Amino acid sequence: MADTDGIQDDEIQTEVTIKEEYELWRKNCRYMYEFVAETALTWPSLTIQWLPDHVDEEGVINSRLLLGTHTSGEDTNYLKLANTQLPSNKSVKANTRLKIIKKFENNFEINRARYMPQQPEIVATINGGGEIDLYNLEGSTDDSKLSFSHFTPHSENGYGLAWSPHSKGLLLTASDDKSVVITDTNNGGTTSIFRSTNDHQQIVNDAKWHSFDSNLFASVSDDKYTILFDARTIDPVSRYYGADEINCLSFSTFSHNLLAIGGTNSNINLLDMRKMSDKTGLKAGLLHSMMGHSDAITSLEFSPHNDGVLASGSQDRRLIIWDLFKVGEEQQQEDAEDGCPELYMMHAGHTGAVTDLSWCPYKPWTLASVADDNLVHVWEVGQSILNADKQEDLNDDDLE
Description:
Layout: H1 4-32, E1 33-40, E2 48-50, E3 55-57, E4 60-68, E5 77-87, E6 99-106, E7 110-116, E8 119-127, E9 132-136, E10 149-151, E11 158-163, E12 170-175, E13 180-184, E14 191-196, E15 204-209, E16 216-221, E17 225-230, E18 238-241, E19 246-251, E20 258-263, E21 267-272, E22 286-291, E23 297-302, E24 309-314, E25 319-323, H2 333-336, E26 343-347, E27 354-359, E28 366-371, E29 375-381, H3 383-386
Antiparallel strand pairs: 1-29, 2-4, 3-4, 4-5, 5-6, 7-8, 8-9, 9-10, 11-12, 12-13, 13-14, 15-16, 16-17, 17-18, 19-20, 20-21, 21-22, 23-24, 24-25, 25-26, 27-28, 28-29
Protein backbone atom coordinates (compact mmCIF):
# COMPACT_ATOMS: atom_id res chain seq x y z
CA MET A 1 0.00 0.00 0.00
CA ALA A 2 1.35 3.40 -0.99
CA ASP A 3 2.50 5.73 1.76
CA THR A 4 0.05 8.53 0.94
CA ASP A 5 0.69 10.30 4.24
CA GLY A 6 4.39 10.51 3.42
CA ILE A 7 3.66 11.91 -0.04
CA GLN A 8 1.32 14.53 1.40
CA ASP A 9 3.91 15.51 4.00
CA ASP A 10 6.51 15.97 1.24
CA GLU A 11 4.10 18.11 -0.77
CA ILE A 12 3.30 20.28 2.24
CA GLN A 13 7.00 20.71 3.01
CA THR A 14 7.69 21.66 -0.60
CA GLU A 15 4.95 24.29 -0.50
CA VAL A 16 6.37 25.69 2.74
CA THR A 17 9.87 25.82 1.25
CA ILE A 18 8.64 27.60 -1.88
CA LYS A 19 6.75 30.15 0.22
CA GLU A 20 9.77 30.79 2.44
CA GLU A 21 12.06 31.21 -0.60
CA TYR A 22 9.59 33.64 -2.17
CA GLU A 23 9.38 35.75 1.00
CA LEU A 24 13.18 35.87 1.18
CA TRP A 25 13.32 36.97 -2.46
CA ARG A 26 10.80 39.74 -1.82
CA LYS A 27 12.92 41.08 1.04
CA ASN A 28 16.03 41.24 -1.18
CA CYS A 29 14.37 42.76 -4.27
CA ARG A 30 15.52 46.29 -3.54
CA TYR A 31 19.15 45.16 -3.64
CA MET A 32 18.92 43.24 -6.93
CA TYR A 33 16.62 45.17 -9.25
CA GLU A 34 16.04 48.64 -10.63
CA PHE A 35 12.41 47.57 -10.65
CA VAL A 36 10.45 44.31 -10.61
CA ALA A 37 6.71 43.91 -11.27
CA GLU A 38 4.33 40.97 -10.94
CA THR A 39 1.07 40.52 -12.83
CA ALA A 40 -1.24 37.57 -12.14
CA LEU A 41 -2.89 35.88 -15.11
CA THR A 42 -6.15 33.92 -15.13
CA TRP A 43 -4.37 31.06 -16.90
CA PRO A 44 -0.65 30.32 -17.14
CA SER A 45 1.20 31.41 -20.26
CA LEU A 46 3.79 29.15 -21.89
CA THR A 47 5.16 32.00 -23.99
CA ILE A 48 6.24 35.63 -23.72
CA GLN A 49 7.91 38.10 -26.06
CA TRP A 50 8.46 41.85 -26.07
CA LEU A 51 7.26 43.63 -29.20
CA PRO A 52 9.85 46.05 -30.61
CA ASP A 53 7.58 49.11 -30.88
CA HIS A 54 7.58 51.49 -27.91
CA VAL A 55 6.99 55.15 -27.08
CA ASP A 56 9.04 57.11 -24.55
CA GLU A 57 7.01 59.90 -22.94
CA GLU A 58 8.81 61.91 -20.27
CA GLY A 59 10.79 58.95 -19.03
CA VAL A 60 7.90 56.46 -19.15
CA ILE A 61 8.30 53.84 -21.88
CA ASN A 62 4.97 52.50 -23.17
CA SER A 63 5.59 48.88 -24.15
CA ARG A 64 3.76 45.81 -25.46
CA LEU A 65 4.22 42.07 -24.98
CA LEU A 66 2.83 38.84 -26.43
CA LEU A 67 1.36 36.17 -24.15
CA GLY A 68 -0.67 32.98 -24.57
CA THR A 69 -2.99 30.82 -22.50
CA HIS A 70 -2.81 27.22 -21.34
CA THR A 71 -6.30 26.39 -20.04
CA SER A 72 -6.00 22.56 -20.11
CA GLY A 73 -9.20 22.46 -22.13
CA GLU A 74 -11.23 24.26 -19.45
CA ASP A 75 -11.70 27.48 -21.43
CA THR A 76 -11.02 29.09 -24.82
CA ASN A 77 -7.33 29.60 -25.52
CA TYR A 78 -6.04 32.94 -26.74
CA LEU A 79 -3.05 34.80 -28.05
CA LYS A 80 -2.94 37.91 -25.87
CA LEU A 81 -1.53 41.37 -26.45
CA ALA A 82 -0.59 43.27 -23.29
CA ASN A 83 0.45 46.84 -22.47
CA THR A 84 2.86 47.87 -19.73
CA GLN A 85 5.04 50.82 -18.79
CA LEU A 86 8.75 50.82 -18.03
CA PRO A 87 10.51 53.52 -16.00
CA SER A 88 13.61 54.99 -17.62
CA ASN A 89 15.11 55.44 -14.14
CA LYS A 90 14.17 55.08 -10.48
CA SER A 91 12.97 58.67 -10.20
CA VAL A 92 10.15 58.02 -12.68
CA LYS A 93 6.90 56.38 -11.64
CA ALA A 94 5.43 53.94 -14.15
CA ASN A 95 2.52 51.49 -14.08
CA THR A 96 4.44 48.28 -14.68
CA ARG A 97 1.46 45.95 -14.22
CA LEU A 98 0.39 44.31 -17.47
CA LYS A 99 -3.00 45.10 -19.00
CA ILE A 100 -4.47 42.78 -21.64
CA ILE A 101 -5.75 44.93 -24.52
CA LYS A 102 -6.50 42.33 -27.23
CA LYS A 103 -7.26 38.62 -27.41
CA PHE A 104 -7.15 36.32 -30.45
CA GLU A 105 -8.78 32.88 -30.36
CA ASN A 106 -6.88 29.63 -30.87
CA ASN A 107 -7.88 25.94 -31.04
CA PHE A 108 -5.39 24.69 -28.43
CA GLU A 109 -3.01 25.98 -25.78
CA ILE A 110 -0.46 28.30 -27.35
CA ASN A 111 3.04 26.93 -26.81
CA ARG A 112 4.93 29.74 -28.54
CA ALA A 113 4.07 33.11 -30.08
CA ARG A 114 6.60 35.16 -32.04
CA TYR A 115 6.36 38.33 -34.15
CA MET A 116 7.84 38.64 -37.63
CA PRO A 117 10.97 40.87 -37.37
CA GLN A 118 10.35 42.56 -40.73
CA GLN A 119 6.63 43.17 -39.99
CA PRO A 120 6.09 43.09 -36.21
CA GLU A 121 2.30 43.35 -36.37
CA ILE A 122 2.25 39.83 -37.88
CA VAL A 123 2.48 37.15 -35.17
CA ALA A 124 2.77 33.39 -35.57
CA THR A 125 1.72 30.83 -32.97
CA ILE A 126 2.24 27.08 -32.66
CA ASN A 127 -0.15 25.15 -30.45
CA GLY A 128 -0.77 21.85 -28.73
CA GLY A 129 -2.02 20.30 -31.96
CA GLY A 130 1.00 21.38 -33.98
CA GLU A 131 -1.15 23.93 -35.80
CA ILE A 132 0.27 27.26 -37.01
CA ASP A 133 -1.79 30.44 -36.95
CA LEU A 134 -0.89 33.90 -38.22
CA TYR A 135 -2.49 36.97 -36.65
CA ASN A 136 -2.51 40.68 -37.47
CA LEU A 137 -2.25 42.65 -34.22
CA GLU A 138 -3.51 45.82 -35.88
CA GLY A 139 -6.85 44.37 -37.03
CA SER A 140 -9.81 46.38 -35.76
CA THR A 141 -12.84 44.26 -36.71
CA ASP A 142 -14.38 41.22 -35.04
CA ASP A 143 -12.65 39.09 -37.67
CA SER A 144 -9.32 40.14 -36.16
CA LYS A 145 -10.05 37.84 -33.21
CA LEU A 146 -9.32 34.94 -35.56
CA SER A 147 -6.13 34.13 -37.42
CA PHE A 148 -5.93 35.25 -41.04
CA SER A 149 -3.92 32.15 -41.93
CA HIS A 150 -4.16 28.65 -40.47
CA PHE A 151 -2.05 25.71 -41.63
CA THR A 152 -0.85 22.36 -40.32
CA PRO A 153 2.72 21.44 -41.28
CA HIS A 154 2.80 19.16 -38.21
CA SER A 155 0.60 16.36 -36.91
CA GLU A 156 1.44 16.69 -33.21
CA ASN A 157 2.14 19.20 -30.42
CA GLY A 158 4.87 21.73 -31.23
CA TYR A 159 7.16 24.19 -29.43
CA GLY A 160 9.72 25.13 -32.06
CA LEU A 161 8.79 28.46 -33.69
CA ALA A 162 11.10 31.10 -35.19
CA TRP A 163 10.75 33.68 -37.96
CA SER A 164 13.83 34.18 -40.10
CA PRO A 165 15.59 37.42 -39.08
CA HIS A 166 17.05 37.60 -42.60
CA SER A 167 14.26 36.64 -45.05
CA LYS A 168 10.77 38.09 -44.63
CA GLY A 169 8.00 35.54 -44.21
CA LEU A 170 10.08 32.39 -43.70
CA LEU A 171 8.85 30.51 -40.62
CA LEU A 172 10.79 27.68 -38.96
CA THR A 173 8.79 25.19 -36.88
CA ALA A 174 9.42 21.90 -35.02
CA SER A 175 7.14 19.37 -33.42
CA ASP A 176 6.63 16.17 -31.45
CA ASP A 177 6.10 14.48 -34.83
CA LYS A 178 9.94 14.51 -35.17
CA SER A 179 9.89 16.97 -38.08
CA VAL A 180 11.49 20.36 -38.75
CA VAL A 181 9.78 22.51 -41.39
CA ILE A 182 10.36 25.85 -43.10
CA THR A 183 7.18 27.45 -44.45
CA ASP A 184 7.12 30.38 -46.88
CA THR A 185 4.19 32.54 -45.78
CA ASN A 186 4.70 35.23 -48.42
CA ASN A 187 2.08 36.15 -51.04
CA GLY A 188 -0.71 34.69 -48.95
CA GLY A 189 0.62 31.17 -49.38
CA THR A 190 1.87 28.58 -46.93
CA THR A 191 4.33 26.52 -48.94
CA SER A 192 6.74 24.17 -47.17
CA ILE A 193 10.15 24.80 -48.73
CA PHE A 194 12.12 22.55 -46.35
CA ARG A 195 11.06 19.48 -44.40
CA SER A 196 13.22 17.17 -42.31
CA THR A 197 11.34 14.06 -41.16
CA ASN A 198 14.05 11.41 -40.70
CA ASP A 199 16.98 13.24 -39.09
CA HIS A 200 15.58 13.24 -35.54
CA GLN A 201 14.34 10.01 -33.98
CA GLN A 202 12.38 11.58 -31.11
CA ILE A 203 10.29 14.71 -30.53
CA VAL A 204 11.92 17.97 -31.65
CA ASN A 205 11.70 20.52 -28.83
CA ASP A 206 13.13 23.67 -30.38
CA ALA A 207 14.46 25.17 -33.61
CA LYS A 208 16.16 28.52 -34.22
CA TRP A 209 17.73 30.46 -37.09
CA HIS A 210 21.39 31.44 -37.03
CA SER A 211 21.95 35.08 -36.05
CA PHE A 212 24.16 35.93 -39.05
CA ASP A 213 23.91 33.27 -41.78
CA SER A 214 20.52 33.38 -43.51
CA ASN A 215 20.68 29.72 -44.55
CA LEU A 216 21.69 28.09 -41.26
CA PHE A 217 19.36 26.88 -38.51
CA ALA A 218 19.47 24.24 -35.79
CA SER A 219 17.11 21.94 -33.94
CA VAL A 220 17.30 19.97 -30.67
CA SER A 221 15.47 16.83 -29.65
CA ASP A 222 14.75 14.20 -27.03
CA ASP A 223 17.01 11.94 -29.12
CA LYS A 224 19.90 13.88 -27.51
CA TYR A 225 21.01 15.38 -30.82
CA THR A 226 21.60 18.98 -31.81
CA ILE A 227 21.50 19.15 -35.61
CA LEU A 228 22.77 22.05 -37.71
CA PHE A 229 21.02 22.44 -41.07
CA ASP A 230 21.56 24.46 -44.24
CA ALA A 231 18.30 25.32 -46.00
CA ARG A 232 19.98 24.86 -49.38
CA THR A 233 20.80 21.19 -48.79
CA ILE A 234 18.89 18.06 -47.83
CA ASP A 235 21.38 16.47 -45.44
CA PRO A 236 22.37 18.03 -42.08
CA VAL A 237 25.60 20.01 -41.92
CA SER A 238 26.72 18.56 -38.58
CA ARG A 239 25.48 17.00 -35.33
CA TYR A 240 26.28 17.17 -31.66
CA TYR A 241 25.35 14.20 -29.47
CA GLY A 242 24.86 14.82 -25.75
CA ALA A 243 24.12 12.60 -22.78
CA ASP A 244 20.57 13.83 -22.15
CA GLU A 245 17.44 15.04 -23.88
CA ILE A 246 17.78 18.61 -25.18
CA ASN A 247 14.93 21.09 -24.71
CA CYS A 248 16.12 24.42 -26.11
CA LEU A 249 18.87 26.29 -27.93
CA SER A 250 20.06 29.80 -28.66
CA PHE A 251 22.57 31.15 -31.18
CA SER A 252 24.87 33.89 -29.95
CA THR A 253 23.90 37.36 -31.14
CA PHE A 254 27.58 38.40 -31.25
CA SER A 255 29.71 35.33 -32.02
CA HIS A 256 29.23 33.57 -35.35
CA ASN A 257 30.16 30.09 -34.08
CA LEU A 258 28.72 29.99 -30.56
CA LEU A 259 25.61 27.95 -29.78
CA ALA A 260 24.06 27.25 -26.36
CA ILE A 261 21.82 24.26 -25.60
CA GLY A 262 19.91 23.24 -22.46
CA GLY A 263 18.32 19.96 -21.51
CA THR A 264 16.87 17.70 -18.88
CA ASN A 265 20.13 17.30 -16.93
CA SER A 266 19.93 20.98 -15.75
CA ASN A 267 23.24 21.92 -17.41
CA ILE A 268 23.81 24.40 -20.23
CA ASN A 269 26.34 23.37 -22.86
CA LEU A 270 28.23 25.86 -25.01
CA LEU A 271 29.13 24.51 -28.45
CA ASP A 272 31.57 25.54 -31.17
CA MET A 273 29.67 25.04 -34.43
CA ARG A 274 32.93 24.56 -36.36
CA LYS A 275 33.84 21.46 -34.38
CA MET A 276 30.52 19.65 -34.08
CA SER A 277 30.88 16.04 -35.19
CA ASP A 278 28.47 14.13 -37.39
CA LYS A 279 29.55 10.80 -35.88
CA THR A 280 27.22 9.18 -33.36
CA GLY A 281 28.44 9.24 -29.78
CA LEU A 282 31.12 11.89 -30.15
CA LYS A 283 30.91 15.11 -28.16
CA ALA A 284 33.22 17.14 -30.40
CA GLY A 285 32.40 20.82 -30.26
CA LEU A 286 31.68 21.07 -26.53
CA LEU A 287 33.38 24.18 -25.16
CA HIS A 288 32.02 24.35 -21.64
CA SER A 289 29.17 23.17 -19.41
CA MET A 290 27.55 25.60 -16.98
CA MET A 291 26.00 24.26 -13.79
CA GLY A 292 23.64 26.34 -11.66
CA HIS A 293 20.12 25.05 -12.20
CA SER A 294 18.76 22.02 -10.34
CA ASP A 295 16.15 20.88 -12.87
CA ALA A 296 15.52 20.75 -16.63
CA ILE A 297 16.27 23.85 -18.71
CA THR A 298 13.16 25.20 -20.46
CA SER A 299 14.33 28.35 -22.25
CA LEU A 300 17.51 30.06 -23.44
CA GLU A 301 18.11 33.47 -24.97
CA PHE A 302 21.32 35.42 -25.59
CA SER A 303 21.17 39.13 -24.77
CA PRO A 304 20.76 41.33 -27.86
CA HIS A 305 22.77 44.11 -26.17
CA ASN A 306 25.70 42.53 -24.33
CA ASP A 307 28.20 40.07 -25.78
CA GLY A 308 28.49 36.84 -23.80
CA VAL A 309 25.37 37.38 -21.68
CA LEU A 310 22.87 34.50 -21.69
CA ALA A 311 19.59 34.03 -19.82
CA SER A 312 18.16 30.61 -18.96
CA GLY A 313 14.87 29.49 -17.44
CA SER A 314 14.29 26.18 -15.70
CA GLN A 315 11.74 23.91 -14.08
CA ASP A 316 13.57 24.67 -10.82
CA ARG A 317 11.63 28.00 -10.73
CA ARG A 318 14.81 29.96 -11.38
CA LEU A 319 16.00 32.25 -14.14
CA ILE A 320 19.77 32.69 -14.33
CA ILE A 321 21.78 35.32 -16.19
CA TRP A 322 25.24 34.08 -17.19
CA ASP A 323 28.36 36.04 -18.13
CA LEU A 324 30.42 33.82 -20.43
CA PHE A 325 33.45 36.08 -20.13
CA LYS A 326 33.78 34.93 -16.53
CA VAL A 327 34.17 31.26 -17.46
CA GLY A 328 37.33 29.92 -15.83
CA GLU A 329 37.87 32.86 -13.46
CA GLU A 330 39.43 32.03 -10.12
CA GLN A 331 37.16 32.36 -7.09
CA GLN A 332 37.55 32.75 -3.38
CA GLN A 333 36.12 29.83 -1.39
CA GLU A 334 33.20 31.88 -0.08
CA ASP A 335 32.32 33.02 -3.62
CA ALA A 336 32.53 29.48 -5.01
CA GLU A 337 29.84 28.38 -2.56
CA ASP A 338 27.41 30.74 -4.34
CA GLY A 339 27.98 29.09 -7.73
CA CYS A 340 30.36 29.03 -10.69
CA PRO A 341 32.05 32.31 -11.67
CA GLU A 342 29.94 32.76 -14.81
CA LEU A 343 26.67 32.73 -12.79
CA TYR A 344 26.00 36.47 -12.89
CA MET A 345 22.54 36.77 -11.31
CA MET A 346 19.70 34.49 -10.23
CA HIS A 347 16.08 35.63 -10.47
CA ALA A 348 14.24 33.58 -7.83
CA GLY A 349 10.83 35.25 -7.77
CA HIS A 350 8.77 32.61 -9.53
CA THR A 351 7.05 29.91 -7.49
CA GLY A 352 6.47 27.59 -10.47
CA ALA A 353 8.52 26.24 -13.36
CA VAL A 354 9.71 28.99 -15.73
CA THR A 355 8.16 28.41 -19.16
CA ASP A 356 9.62 31.25 -21.25
CA LEU A 357 11.68 34.44 -21.07
CA SER A 358 12.39 37.44 -23.27
CA TRP A 359 15.00 40.20 -23.29
CA CYS A 360 13.56 43.65 -23.90
CA PRO A 361 14.92 44.70 -27.34
CA TYR A 362 15.17 48.42 -26.52
CA LYS A 363 16.05 48.55 -22.80
CA PRO A 364 19.26 46.71 -21.83
CA TRP A 365 19.23 44.39 -18.82
CA THR A 366 15.41 44.30 -18.80
CA LEU A 367 13.56 40.99 -19.09
CA ALA A 368 10.11 39.46 -18.92
CA SER A 369 9.45 35.92 -17.73
CA VAL A 370 6.45 33.63 -17.25
CA ALA A 371 5.97 30.53 -15.14
CA ASP A 372 3.47 27.86 -14.13
CA ASP A 373 2.52 30.04 -11.15
CA ASN A 374 0.33 32.16 -13.54
CA LEU A 375 2.60 35.15 -12.94
CA VAL A 376 4.33 37.45 -15.41
CA HIS A 377 7.47 39.11 -14.11
CA VAL A 378 8.91 42.24 -15.72
CA TRP A 379 12.23 43.29 -14.25
CA GLU A 380 15.50 45.15 -14.73
CA VAL A 381 18.82 44.07 -13.27
CA GLY A 382 19.95 46.49 -10.57
CA GLN A 383 22.87 48.87 -10.96
CA SER A 384 24.32 47.44 -7.75
CA ILE A 385 24.84 44.12 -9.58
CA LEU A 386 25.98 45.69 -12.86
CA ASN A 387 28.55 47.85 -11.04
CA ALA A 388 29.71 45.17 -8.60
CA ASP A 389 32.81 44.33 -10.63
CA LYS A 390 33.76 47.94 -11.36
CA GLN A 391 36.62 49.17 -9.24
CA GLU A 392 36.49 52.72 -7.95
CA ASP A 393 38.74 55.11 -9.84
CA LEU A 394 41.69 56.18 -7.72
CA ASN A 395 43.64 59.40 -7.94
CA ASP A 396 47.39 59.29 -7.98
CA ASP A 397 47.36 60.90 -4.53
CA ASP A 398 45.41 57.92 -3.19
CA LEU A 399 48.21 55.50 -4.13
CA GLU A 400 51.15 54.98 -1.81
